[in-house]
Amino acid sequence: RSIIFPILSIPPELTVAIFMACVKEHPQQDPLALSHVCCQWRQIALGTPELW
Questions:
Q1: Where in the numbering of this chain does the F-box domain appear (predicted)?
Q2: Whole-prediction pTM value?
Q3: Per the domain annotation, does 3 fall within a domain?
């Protein structure tokens, strides 16, 4: 799947850093939206209490 979707090959730690930057930059956006992109992002978002 990472061949089709290269974004999925990013390490989870980096994905968390990106999520945190997005939430910081756009606090009015619900972090739940990040968890609706794909299964991997859902697992990462829900496993990152700092987002909530």
A1: 7-52
A2: 0.81
A3: no
